[in-house]
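Following up on my earlier message about adenosine-5'-diphosphate. Here are the inputs again, as you asked, copied directly from the submission form:
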Amino acid sequence: MYESYYGLTSKPFQLTPDPAFFFASKLHKRAMSYLQYGLSQAEGFIVITGDIGTGKTTIANSLLDDMEQDIFAAQIVTPKLNPDELIKMVASKFELDVVNKSKSDLLEDIEYFLSGLAGQGKRALLLVDEAQNLPLETIEELRMLSNFQKAGKPLLQSFLLGQAELQPILRAPNMEQFRQRIVASCHLAPLNRDESIEYIEYRMHHAGYNGNKLFSDDAYTAIYEFSKGVPRKMNTLMDRVLLFGFLEEIEQFALDDVQSVIDEVKAEMFLPEDISDSALPRNTDIPADNSDRFTHKGTQIREAEYYKKMLFELVDALDDAIKHKIKLTQYIDRLLKKKYKAYVRLKTDDD
Ligand SMILES: Nc1ncnc2c1ncn2[C@@H]1O[C@H](COP(=O)(O)OP(=O)(O)O)[C@@H](O)[C@H]1O
Ligand SMILES: [Mg+2]
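Thanks, got it. Here's what our run produced:
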């Protein structure tokens, strides 16, 4: 909607991890080199961790995008897979028939497939995204897969991408054998202020922007402070900021402009603040004579109460969001009418 107003050829802040928009910050560059180095090792595991939205999937997609022809890459995004499901998933990603096959059949087929690839001078890469969801036994199964060899050369290499929770999983004492197979690992942190500004400008230019400086310094600071330098948060906010700019016909954003968008976005966010046990209602929320309060049942009651409360809050928040959307639509409507009238006036003046 705002693209033509700002002279853009595409939307600069899409949420899909698009390799064409890859911005190589210092950390992203380093992570990319690790992945490339890992690839050249052709064995073991590469692990990339990082908080939600810091760019793990984007990096992986960029890597897959410019990968050599001789690598057969399969990408898995894992819900909580058990070891058997993992094997099935891997087999199907390698385009093998999985119907009515036992696990040992599948393992045999996978080995046959991998060794066939090696025979053609190719190799296989398994990219496991959201790997923090994998149970320990499944990670162990992955390790077993990495044991396949032909003439002393490993047949499969894996990359694990996961949120910070993946780190303690891999640090577990019984994961020693797995750890020995890690050839490189790194952690993606959010961008710092300067990098965040570069990130925004990079994406804007990449989407075709070539006008004047669009944001004042303190407007940038507000964007950075709100998004904490997390690319996904920046994308969501920036999309709204540009829409606001188009509606308000803003040519350079001042702090106040950005702040009003941040206030709107904040009002629309309905994330639970803390769903850890400490956030659960305390025993005082249960009738005093409830003898179950310290038992399993007591905990269940507390949880049910808590989720009920949370659902009510969610309903309120959704109501607010709908009201807000209606307001926004009405606003856009009015604006379009205004623009249309101005256009008709200009046209009659011309005639
Ligand atoms: N280095 C980067 N260059 C360009 N865009 C990025 C970069 N890192 C993250 N993004 C953007 O941020 C959003 C979230 O990135 P994503 O890779 O999905 O994060 P993660 O997998 O770590 O949760 C995506 O919209 C993506 O386009
Ligand atoms: Mg991801």
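One observation from looking it over: The chain has a mean pLDDT of 86. Hope that helps, and feel free to reply on this thread.
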